[in-house]
Amino acid sequence: MTPHDQAEWRTVLAERAIERLIIGYAALNDAGDWDGVAALYLPDGRMSRPTAPHVFITGREAILAAFRARPLRTTRHVVANIRVTVERDVATATSQILLFTAPGSPPLVGSYHDRLAQTEDGWRFAERAGSLDFPPA
User: Fold this and answer.
1) What are the extents of the domains in the chain?
2) Calpha distance 13→25 (Å, rounded)
3) What is the C-alpha separation between 134 and 43, in angstroms, rounded?
4) pTM score, two decimals?
5) Structure confidence at residue 116 (pLDDT)
6) Are strands 90-102 and 74-87 parallel, antiparallel or unpaired?
7) Nearest CA to 51 among 91, 105, 93?
8) Average pLDDT, stretch 55-63?
9) In sequence order, which residues have a C-beta less than 8 Å from that of residue 68 and are 6 or more positions away?
């Protein structure tokens, strides 16, 4: 295998790992596993929810506290159109989400813009910036 081929494989493997991270984030969120969700961030990572795109929560502990403060609810996130760009040990990604919340809330369509970093524990979010594509009226 040539060095170019090896680099291509490393890129493909990184892209797949990041896709799995994004999908896993949704599954952990739907399961209410807030410790698992927070662990997917760098210690100084930050996030904004799609419903509050300009309000960032910074730091893994603050992210965990924000999720724990939410009222219990049943959700299902459908994640689609994941696009990943890898530059060595950092990456960017975009994805779309469709969120169903029970009982009776209308579905929400949104996007995430992610910055990620490779760590000893795998890829982690440096930033997850959410937004709604079709804000409720």
Assistant:
1) 3-132
2) 18
3) 31
4) 0.94
5) 98
6) antiparallel
7) 105
8) 98
9) 34
Domain 3-132 belongs to what architecture?
Roll (3.10)
| CA dist list (Å): 105 to 53, 99, 124 | 20, 10, 31
> Which residues have CB under 8 Å from 106's CB, separation 6+?
136
Q: Each residue of 3-45: pLDDT tens digit?
A: 777 888 899 999 999 999 999 999 999 999 999 999 999 999 9
Report d(CA 69, CA 136) in Å as an integer: 23
Compute CA 53 distance to the chain's CA centroid, rounded to the nearest angstrom: 14
Task: Tell me the two tokens of residue 57.
Answer: 């929560």
37: tokens are 């969700």
Q: Using omega within 30 degrees of 0 as the cis cutoff, is the peptide bond preceding 53 cis? A: no
